[in-house]
Amino acid sequence: MGFYYGPSQPQDEPPPGSWRETLLIIWVVFKALALPLGLLFGAVLGFVLILWAFLTSPWLGLALLGLAAAAVVARGIWEARHPPDLP
Question: Where are the transmembrane segments (predicted)?
Fold first, then answer.
């Protein structure tokens, strides 16, 4: 009957993963989450910086916002002058 239904004794548990497998899984998870977490922490830090600038001086806050807007416009102009090479 064991031929049809399998062995009558329970099978041994598979051996646990090694420390290398554990470190590899941790590395893959951190690698996948690095960019989203970096963007999230960067956005929060930027918001705190702008809030601090406005609390210090309204002109400093406006200057910081103007600097950020100028950086976005400059990046747009640079991208327009250097289009990507499509195959």
Answer: 24-52, 59-78
pTM of whole model > 0.70? no
26 falls within a domain: no
Q: Which domain holds residue 53?
A: 43-82
Which two structure tokens, joined as six digits, stand for 28? Answer: 């893959």
Q: Both tokens of residue 67?
A: 């600097």
Number of structural domains found in the chain: 1
CB crowding 6-37: b at 16 or more within 10 Å, else e: eeeeeeeeeeeeeeeeeeeeeeeeeeeeeeee
Give the model confidence (pLDDT) of 13-59 as tens digits: 666 778 888 889 999 999 999 999 999 999 999 999 999 999 999 99
